[in-house]
Amino acid sequence: MAKSKSQRMKEYRERKKASLGEKWLIQESNRTREYYKPTSQLNSKEKKARRERIRDNVSAYRKRQTALLNKTNDVALLKEADLDEPNPLVLIEDENGVSSTSTQQPLIVKMPLISAKSKGGKKGASHALKRATNEIRNLKKHNKNLKKSQNTLRKTIGTREEKEQ
Q1: For residue 127, what are the domain limits?
Q2: pLDDT (tens digit, 0 to 9) for every residue of the chain, 165 residues total?
């Protein structure tokens, strides 16, 4: 069966790595590094497109990671639970004379996954502070512009009154 282009390239890279070793890896990294353009050199349309593509890739990566984590948690819980065997009940009495039934195995409760990177705590507070600071700055600019226009109007009114007299 014929090999695909990716299979041929993989074998080619393995042969190069075997023959040249680290030297080839350095050459290859330098060659690919030349293709990268810093964001500062892009125009606004290209910046927007790159950032959107990166944002999509990062969100897809996070979804895969949470799905993988949830899957491993589910498998671990199933292994711990041993659903095939019935749990024998044990009668427990405490010093007050209250009796209750319990299983010998600990109760396993599946909790929802809470991301440490969710926008709460410090990050949410810093965003709120930044928003408030920007709003204050904009209001100060607006106030300054209003005072300028007020002064110009006051001067024009003053000159008109002088001309009338």
Answers
A1: 119-165
A2: 789 999 999 999 899 989 998 898 899 899 888 888 898 999 999 999 999 999 999 999 999 988 888 777 666 666 655 555 555 555 555 566 555 555 556 656 565 555 555 556 777 778 888 888 888 899 999 999 999 999 999 999 988 888 887
Cβ-proximal residues to 47 (8 Å cutoff; 6+ apart), any chain? 39
User: Which ranges of 21-120 does DSSP label H, i.e. alpha helix?
Assistant: 22-33, 44-81
Spatial separation of the C-alpha atoms in residues 73 and 114, rounded to whole Å: 13
Residue 76 lies in a domain: no
**3-class secondary structure, 91:** strand
Indicate whether 83 belongs to any domain: no
* Within-domain flag for 1: no
User: Which contiguous run of DSSP H or E holds residue 153?
Assistant: helix 121-164
Number of structural domains (the chain) is: 1
CB 66 within 8 A of CB 113: yes
DSSP 8-class letter at 119 = S
